[in-house]
Amino acid sequence: xxxxxxxxxxxxxxxxxxxxxxxxxxxxxxxxxxxxxxxxxxxxxxxxxxxxxxxxxxxxxxxxxxxxxxxxxxxxxxxxxxxxxxxxxxxxxxxxxxxxxxxxxxxxxxxx
Length: 112
Hints:
four-stranded antiparallel sheet, 55% strand, globular
């Protein structure tokens, strides 16, 4: 089992930036990909970005060009750098691993 802990959420004005972190522990060697989903109030959880073991990254169209996913060399922590934030980016952001494990979520609020 993989344990995921997110951090870095908060309140920011539109146009600002935040950096989310997701630290993985446990059966890390079983992870091939990690990434982020988000869920806004009253909406379904939606895909944000993924990074694979070999470093390949993919993004949802809604965040492409504004968000960057990366990881540390030990491959135990994944980051989501969020720039040019918009009010519609407001959501709880969840880290996930392709071992079907999820973090507890971190709130991101973007004020207009």
